[in-house]
Design brief:
Layout: H1 2-16, H2 21-27, H3 32-74, H4 85-110, H5 112-123, H6 129-151
Helix pairs in contact: 1-2, 1-3, 2-3, 3-5, 3-6, 4-5, 4-6
Length: about 150
Amino acid sequence: MADLLEILSIVAAAMVKFAVSPIWSYQLGYSLWETVAFTSLGGVVGVLFFYRISGWLMRKARIRRLRRALAAEAAGKLPARSFTRGNRLIVKVKRGHGLHGLAAITPVLISIPIGAILAAKYFYHDRRTIPVLISSVLIWSVVLSSFWTVVR
């Protein structure tokens, strides 16, 4: 039972913050291929889950932005648009590298939930979106697991 909980914790970590899940797996004593399997499973489940619920999340965010804008307008203030470094990176990757660029940075830099939501927002009608995201997760799983095997 304890092993099942450990595996589920690795899979859950890979769903949300993929880059740290191989470290977690190694600290629990799992081998390279077990780590690759657990992090791949978590990453793929995370991509599918967050991609599928992204429509609902985007509707909620849009409603929240509209309410804030209406409240600011009623108070006589216009909300200032903020362009953070993260926002600029995402726009630069989307315009310059497209779906493949977004998929490449999703597991390690921007997390699977945010990457899957952005992919659904910008590339929803592209039938390659989910396979490209899953391929990226699988490649990064092997790369990160191998890297942490060498480092530890």
